[in-house]
Amino acid sequence: MVCETLKPGVECLFMKKTGCSYNGGKCYTIVENCEGCSKVVEFETGKYCSSFPYPAQKWQKGSCSMSSHTKKSSQAAGQKINPLKASKRSAGKR
Ligand code: SF4
Prior knowledge:
The chain has helices spanning 55-58, 71-78, 83-93, and strands at 15-16, 19-20, 40-43, 46-49. By secondary structure, the chain is of the alpha+beta class. The protein has one domain. The strands form 2 sheets. The chain has a two-stranded antiparallel sheet. A two-stranded antiparallel sheet has the order 3-4. The longest helix is centred in the C-terminal third of the chain and has 11 residues, at 83-93. The chain starts with 14 loop residues before the first strand and ends with a helix. It binds iron/sulfur cluster (SF4).
């Protein structure tokens, strides 16, 4: 249903006929780490994440998995060279 509380006009799974069914009847504003993310949407009621109702929770165990502004660091981590593969590769060149 369409939100009628903090994010008016936004389609939301938590909105029910009886009102917002999310924890406490409302979602939570973004946290400092979210600044710069493309998922941040600004409403008159504050800045919210378009993907998660509780952004702080997404940052509790490291970086938010859906953040658009921290991808570079995760890509860099993915590009780490596997030492085993690297040694096989160099062995093959000999
Ligand atoms: S996707 Fe993650 S980083 Fe981006 S606004 Fe939402 S909670 Fe914050």
